[in-house]
Each structure stands twice: as structure tokens, then as C-alpha cells.
Amino acid sequence: MTTPVLFDVQGPRARARARVGSAIGAVLVLAIIGFVLLRLGGNGQLEPERWAILFDPASGVPQALGRALVRTLQVAAVAMVLATLLGLLLAVGRLSDHRFIRVPVSAVIEFFRAIPLLVVIFALYFVLPKYGVRLSTFTALTGGLVLYNMAVLAEIFRAGILSIDRGQREAGFGLGLRKSQVMTLILLPQATRRMLPVLVAQLVVLLKDTSLGFIISYLELLRQARGLVEYFNSLFGDRYTFQLYVAAGLIYILINVLLSMLARYTERRTNRAGRKAVTAAPADQMGDGGGAA
Q1: Nearest 10 degrees: CA dihedral of 126, 127, 131, 132?
Q2: What is the CA radius of gyration of the chain?
Q3: Number of neighbours of residue 49 by Cβ within 10 angstroms
Q4: Residue 22 CB burial class (10 angstroms; 0-12, 13-18, ≥19)
Q5: Are residues 147 and 111 in contact, defined by beta-carbon separation less than 8 angstroms?
Q6: Phi, psi at 164, each rounded to 5°
Q7: Which site in 13, 101, 168, 218 is 20 to 30 Å from 117, CA atoms measured?
Q8: 221 CB neighbour count, 10 Å cutoff
Q9: Residue 110, CB half-sphere, CA atoms under 13 Å: how many?
Q10: DSSP string spanning 68-129?
């Protein structure tokens, strides 16, 4: 039987207090939700006619939000792939034994980690044109997300690689493997399983940061919702403002939940594959030993 080292096991009284605290917290949350719904109902925000516009093709709202979602996912997908690949390369470079590689790579990582993402996007879209380099809103937004997140992901990758026991690295060298083989065959597969939750959390942040395209007029989800609000405000006042912003927020939440579910599924699959490999190795050794005997 294993005992936890980070906290003491709760006794009967502590468990009872925890249950009471959880019940009180749940009641408070439900009370807040009920209060908000009452206020919204009193202001007429829960009227079915106001929400029907989100599903009425004649209004153009579903089509506009759908196109904005596609543009958002395009930026997020390209930025995720490039930031992950570049982050992995930067992490390997920062772990290099060669100083002329390690020092400049470390400088790049620290530089882009220290600069706010919004400043990076502004520099790409507004500063570079002064030097003859004009980028589209898609390229500027994607480039800013890549430059910032590759630095963050590089540190995640580096921490994951360094968390692997040093003996496994030395065992790989003892088998005659080159450093690149030790990295790709031994360290990275194990590090990926360990850092997957943190990695996915950062990719979720990247997805939400696509909303910064609003600043440079890229028609992502938030910018499109704002445009719809302005259009309908000119016709009906602020009748549909709340509904349109809620729709955009719920789409963001849905995408992030699906991404998290995919990450948990991938984590379970990789952990299951790792356990099968560990249990199969002793059986193969016993089989080889029996054959030799």
C-alpha cells in the first residue's frame, strides 16, 4: 500500500467537512446562476425570439459565424503545428552541448517569452510595412502566435526532456546510440507522455489567443461577432448583442473542450501503449532465456 507524500490522508471528520463545504459551494454556485438567469429574464434576454436569430439562415448569422469559425481554426491549426515543431527544435538547441548553438537559441526563447503577444502581432502588422515587408492579417496573426508560443513550448519540451531519469540517457549511450537516437528513441517518447497535459493547455491558450486578431481586423470569431453586433445594432438597437457574444463564447468553449477530450484520449492511448511495452519486455526476455536454455 502506498501512502501519499504531498498531503495527509483525510480522516472521517475531514471528509465530512469536505462534503459539507462542497455542498455549500454547489448551493452558492446554483444561487448565483439562478440570480443571473432571473436578471436576464427580467431584461428580456431569454426570449426565444432573440435566440432564434442564431439558427435562422435567413438572418445570415449561422453562415457568418461558421465562416469565422473556419478562419479561426485555420489560424489555430497552422500556428499549433509550426509552434510545436519550432518549439521542439528550440528545445533541442537549448539542450545542445555546443555553446554557439545553445546561447543564441536561449536568447531567442527568452526574447519572445518576455514580449507580450499583442506587441509581437503589432510589430508584424504595423512595423514591418515601414521596412517594405507587408503581411496579410492572416500571416501577421499566425506569425505572432507562432513566435510567442514556440518560445513557451520550447521550455515545456525542455522541462519534459530533463524530467527523464538521467540513467536512461546513460543507458542509451552505453548501448552505443548517438545523441540524436537517444533523444528520438528514448527521451522524447517518455517526455511527450509526461508533458502532454501542459502541452495541450498551452495549445488551448493559443486557440483563445486567436481572438487578438480582432485588433488587426482579421475576421476571426470575435471580430465577426462584433461585426454582427454593429450591423444588428444599426437595425434593432442592442436587441441581439448579448446573444451574439454568448454564441461566440460558447463556440470557443466547445472547441477547447473537444481539444481537451482529444488530449485525454491521446494520453490514455499512449499510457496504455507504454504499459503494454513494459509488460511485454520481461515476457520476451523470459522467452529468449528459455530458448537459450
Answers
A1: -20
A2: 26
A3: 9
A4: exposed
A5: no
A6: -75, 140
A7: 101
A8: 25
A9: 7
A10: HHHHHHHHHHHHHHHHHHHHHHHHHHHT-S-HHHHHHHHHHHHHHHHS-HHHHHHIIIIIGG
For the segment 187-243, what is each residue's pLDDT rounded down to a tens digit?
777 777 777 778 888 888 898 899 888 889 888 888 898 889 888 888 877 788 888
Residue labelled with grid coordinates 492572416: 138
28 — phi, psi (to 5°)? -65, -45
- Please give the pLDDT value at position 109: 94
3-state secondary structure of 45: coil
Alpha-carbon distances of 107 from 91, 111, 118, rounded to whole Å: 12, 6, 20
Q: If you write DSSP's letter for every residue of 212-236 in order, what string do you get?
A: GGGTTT---HHHHHHHHHHHHHHHH
Q: What are phi and psi of 179, to 5 degrees?
A: -60, -40
Cα(87)–Cα(113) distance, integer angstroms: 12
Report the distance separating Cα 78 and Cα 120, nearest Å.
17
Q: Are 68 and 221 in contact (CB under 8 A)?
A: yes
Cell of 10: 483525510
Cell of residue 190, nine digits: 517518455
Asked whether 70 and 256 are in contact (CB, 8 A), the reply is no
pTM of the model: 0.76
Sign of the CA dihedral running 103, 105, 111, 113: negative
Distance CA 184, CA 260 (A): 26
Asked if residue 202 lies in contact with residue 152, where contact means CB atoms within 8 angstroms, the answer is yes
Q: What is the 3-state secondary structure (H, E, C) of 5-71?
A: CCCCCCCHHHHHHHHHHHHHHHHHHHHHHHHHHHHHHHCCCCCHHHHHCCCCHHHCHHHHHHHHHHH
Instruction: Using alpha carbons, select from 114, 187, 116 the residue that is nearest to residue 157.
Output: 187
